[in-house]
């Protein structure tokens, strides 16, 4: 991959992937429990929690992600790190495929859409 038109190597391409579902499961929680908990009421829409869990978003609102992390923490009693909610995967620039760095094959974030 070349950077701009300067024929110099560009940065290694990465894709971001949400791992909210995995963070819930690791704590014995379902996405439903997080989305429908009293802690979510008035703070985050249940549909947003489901979209984040499916990886069905192109952009992340950091406040929303922090709220979901707080709900998971409150329900489970275990702190949540950013690395448990978001994974980066190096893209194989030669073949255009993903070389997984962390996690499974859920949806990748791409620029252009916005979900909160």
Which characteristics define this entry?
elongated; disordered C terminus; alpha+beta; two-stranded antiparallel sheet; 116 residues; 6 strands; 4 helices
Quick recap of the structure?
Residues 96-116 are annotated as: Disordered. The protein has 116 residues and is of the alpha+beta class.
Task: Please characterize this protein's 3D structure.
- By secondary structure, this protein is of the alpha+beta class.
- It has one domain.
- Helices cover 32% and strands 18% of the residues.
- The chain is built from four helices and six strands.
- Strands 5-4-3-6 form a four-stranded antiparallel sheet. The protein has a two-stranded antiparallel sheet with strand order 1-2.
- A hairpin with a 4-residue loop joins strand 4 and strand 5.
Low-confidence stretches: 100-108, 110-116
Helix content: 25-40%
Kindly provide the radius of gyration, computed on alpha-carbon positions and rounded to a whole number of angstroms: 16 Å
Number of strands: 6
The span between the termini is 32 Å
Major sheet: 4 strands, antiparallel
Percent of residues in β-strands = 15-25%
User: What number of structural domains do the residues give?
Assistant: 1
Task: Tally the helices.
Answer: 4
Mean pLDDT: 82
Q: Any idea what the shape is?
A: elongated
User: Can you list the strand order of the major beta sheet?
Assistant: 5-4-3-6
User: What is the string of SSEs from the N terminus onward?
Assistant: EEEHHHHEEE
Region (Disordered): 96-116
Organism: Deinococcus marmoris
Protein name: HTH cro/C1-type domain-containing protein
């Amino acid at each position: 991959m070349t950077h701009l038109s300067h024929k110099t190597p560009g940065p290694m391409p990465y894709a971001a992937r949400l791992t909210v579902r995995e963070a819930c499961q690791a704590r014995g929680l379902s996405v439903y429990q997080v989305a429908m908990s009293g802690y979510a009421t008035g703070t985050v829409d249940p549909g947003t929690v489901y979209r984040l869990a499916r990886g069905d978003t192109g952009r992340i609102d950091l406040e929303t992600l922090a709220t979901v992390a707080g709900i998971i923490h409150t329900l489970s009693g275990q702190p949540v790190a950013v690395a448990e909610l978001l994974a980066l995967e190096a893209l194989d620039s030669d073949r255009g495929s993903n070389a997984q760095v962390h996690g499974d094959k859920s949806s990748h974030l791409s620029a252009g859409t916005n979900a909160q």
